[in-house]
Amino acid sequence: MVNKFNKLSLQGKSLGKLTYVSRNKVGTNGDISVVVLNINDTLNTENITPQAGFDFAKLFGTELKLINASIIGGEARSNRRGGARVATKSGTLLPMSDSQIDDIPETEYDAVFVSGKEKASVGRVRPADAFDSHDLILFSVSPNYQTDNQNNPVRDDNGEPIISNYQFNFMQQSKSGGVNDDDTFIRILIDPTESERLQVDLKPGAKLVPQGLKFAFVGNNATDWTVYADTLVALDEKIPEKPASNQSKPITNQTDKIIDSSLMTIR
Questions:
Q1: Measuring CA to CA, which residue among 143, 74, 102 is closest to residue 11?
Q2: Between the CA of residue 135 and those of 4, 48, 120, 187, what are the distances in Å?
Q3: d(CA 202, CA 195)
């Protein structure tokens, strides 16, 4: 399977201000207790599976903080047999006065989880949970075409099919040659203009490091996750250094102030 990741660590504070709504039951059998939270004093909500022993007897509007969170592929009730595959979030929910923070350094949450047709930014995630960005070997590149509601290619004024992006297909070098290597493929999507620039001198076996990663959960039979990148940099080129970690950075109520504008751009 392509892009088969068990989980992505999620930086709870990057979701924004979290206020308690109520308890809810989810899952294919309706037997999983989750906390429903309002986000940033809006009507947007998130379901979080809390830690064992979480006290659900909280007043509406109680502000909480989320640490050591993650996103995995779970199942929701649906009319289809077996349920629908969805991205589910879990973590430790604490009072705002609690001093505990994420176990993972802030600088490692250097990608963005996006959702919806418009690829709206949700929060920061840790791409190292998915793959080692320095372990990728390119073996093919192919275009993806825009399609209409009948899954037919959308064409431009000249009758040519419109390319929505290119998929760069990688093997993970550390897993090459293994017997059970059927989950080693990583597919990264890049917009057409940047893709065409990158492809000029590329050959099979090129070692490339993605920059500006975004992850979207798909959960179908072909792939669990879609991965986007702004560009790719040859491994022997200088990779931009990450800024110093600042765990004491105050939490803002505006998510877009937490997520860098450079990471929010979806091409």
A1: 102
A2: 16, 32, 28, 13
A3: 11
